[in-house]
Design a protein that fits this description.
Chains A, B: It holds the Pfam family Iso_dh. The structure is a homodimer of 351-residue chains. With 351 residues, chain A is an alpha/beta fold. Chain A is built from 11 helices and 12 strands. The relative contact order of chain A is 0.18. The complex binds 3-isopropylmalic acid (IPM) (2 copies).
Chain lengths: 351, 351
């Protein structure tokens, strides 16, 4: 029997609420499909930060390195600046473990409706492949003339050939297993160093995949296309920032942020990958039992898929679809009155 | 009688098609409302670039400096890289003339439908105030280790206190004349130098406008809100890149890109301001008489407004509304069969 060691970091706010339910579902799937999940829980969070002065211990990365997967709730809490909470946990983990792919599949789940008029579920299914280790999210930069009227800030973006090539290649490989189409987000007309470089590498990689239809589109126009003609998008590859914006938009256009899972993937398997919902910690509704656990449950399915438990992963997705279709155990954001726990329990039963 | 000297730069592709119609409308408005427009046409374009090696002459900026307004079609043509065409004309003009405000009002025009389900016109009206002179669009940066496997690119963003403060202040002043609400696009959790600086200045400026409701939102979440809850947005202020993405998205969510005008404004009046459609040169449909001239006509109305001809500007907007409501003279993108010229003529008549 396969036994997987999973590091669970519920984090803050609704991260805690939804992780409990998702673990319940994952354990049920494991029991049914003949493997087991050994959970280790870590209290790394903004709460820890306010007490101990750091989101995680100094050797946090080392503590996680031997796990088979990392299951993250959400971090963020009022009073702790975002750039502290995220650069103290999420972003360093993504980088230390070379999770250079942020994979964000979206689809219109049954029983939910899109904000877009007259769109069918088939038209609203795509996956955002986001670069997750460099680009616009860089710690390089700083202030000059601080406090003076002529103060200014520099913020450096860093794009490496290795980093750009591997994410684009991943997108092409993925497209081969799906529609055979890749759309690259660019902005080479405005950002005249980074994006022409990105485009150049995109063209080079595309040349090696003559069977995949490759196109590029400026990120502003691509955002517009996502609401005007989403059916023509399938695999969308973008830089750290562009992938972030486009994946939130894609989630909003399909089922909403409560439904969107996300994998921070180290494709070589050398380091553990990390799975989380796209949504944040939503402190305003935390602990009230009303958070929608679907995104976190689906993030769990992505984790199982990554571990090779494909059948169990698919079973979870099917169970979620069934519960949403039945429509009796929906959380308030889905128009129901059920609690987080009831939705989680319903999915567990449907398994 | 007021006489305004206008520099017209039709540019490339449909820029030429729509500028002709917009000038017709503007001249009719001038005749009716007792002022005149003296047009000077400049052939600055990608076509010029392919012949003369530059989008505009060396003294291009000087040639335009004495005009009361600049009316720009669109630039861009296959074979001329975007970063050449835009950094050779549009972007230098925005900067030389300190057009630090890029104002992009959007609304759902009569007779058109939103891609969003069940939204009324009142819910779909907002204005994007985009920083237009610095930020992510910077020429600073370059390549290292060119052609080697360890090649990388740096791209610098530059945010100055002066630049950030003036655009945010502009947004607050504008909000006072509208809903009294300003939403600032940030991403301080990912971009840890530039955006915390932006947020800090936003808070400082907001303190001086206790009558305006100020909020900030990460750009990814804001893109999601634009499709999920557009009715809660009115004045949205963002950096050069964020404003660009959000304004295309806002245009797509309301009437579409064929309807969205844009003003590059120098608020002090020291230099001429420049007005254009948000859409590009669309070379694939250029010269066929099918381009929608509405965005360019509305850009003309913005120009008149800026020149102080408020009544004429409003008359043009009303005429556009009437023609769209009547619905007999619509271009193909609006579901009709009329030509660019017929739509332009219809608006002229409605005046
Ligand atoms: C053409 C391009 C440089 C431009 C921009 O991003 O500024 C365009 O998208 C716009 O919005 O005016
Ligand atoms: C929390 C934040 C740093 C993060 C990001 O932008 O990466 C989030 O928006 C996400 O998409 O995971």
């Amino acid at each position: 029997m396969n036994d997987y060691r999973i590091a669970s970091i519920p984090g803050d706010g609704i991260g805690v609420d939804v992780t409990v339910e998702a673990r319940k579902v994952l354990d049920a799937a494991a029991a049914k499909h003949g493997f087991s999940l050994a959970w280790n829980e870590f209290d790394w969070s903004c709460e820890r930060y306010t007490k101990a002065g750091a989101m995680m211990p100094d050797d946090g990365v080392d503590q996680l390195a031997a796990f088979d997967g990392i299951f993250l709730g959400a971090v963020g809490f009022p009073g702790v600046p975002d750039h502290v909470s995220l650069w103290g946990l999420l972003i360093p983990l993504r980088r230390a473990f070379q999770q250079y792919v942020n994979l964000r599949p979206v689809r219109l789940l049954p029983g939910t409706t899109s904000v877009l008029a007259g769109r069918s579920a088939e038209e609203l299914e795509m996956v955002i492949v986001r670069e997750n280790s460099e680009g616009e999210y860089s710690a390089i930069g700083g202030r000059h003339n601080t406090g003076r009227p002529d103060e200014f800030v520099l913020q450096e973006s860093v794009f490496t050939r290795v980093g750009v090539e591997r994410i684009i290649r991943y997108a092409f490989e993925l497209a081969r297993t799906r529609s055979g189409r890749v759309t690259s987000a660019t902005k080479s007309n405005g950002l005249i160093h980074s994006m022409p470089f990105w485009d150049e590498i995109f063209a080079e990689v595309a040349a090696g995949y003559p069977d995949v239809r490759a196109e590029q589109c400026h990120v502003d126009a691509l955002a517009a296309r996502m609401v005007q003609a989403p059916e023509r998008l399938d695999v969308v590859v973008g830089s750290n920032l562009f992938g972030d914006i486009l994946s939130d938009l894609a989630a909003a256009v399909t089922g909403g942020l409560g439904m969107a899972p996300s994998g921070n993937i180290n494709p070589s398997g050398e380091y553990p990958s990390m799975f989380e919902a796209v949504h944040g910690s939503a402190p305003d509704i935390a602990g009230q039992g009303i958070a929608n656990p679907v995104a976190q449950i689906l993030a769990g399915a992505m984790m199982l898929e990554h571990l090779g438990e494909t059948v169990a992963a698919q079973a979870i997705r099917t169970a979620v679809d069934e519960v949403l279709t039945a429509g009796t155990e929906l959380t308030p954001d889905l128009g129901g009155t059920a609690t987080t726990t009831r939705l989680g329990t319903a999915v567990t039963k449907a398994l």
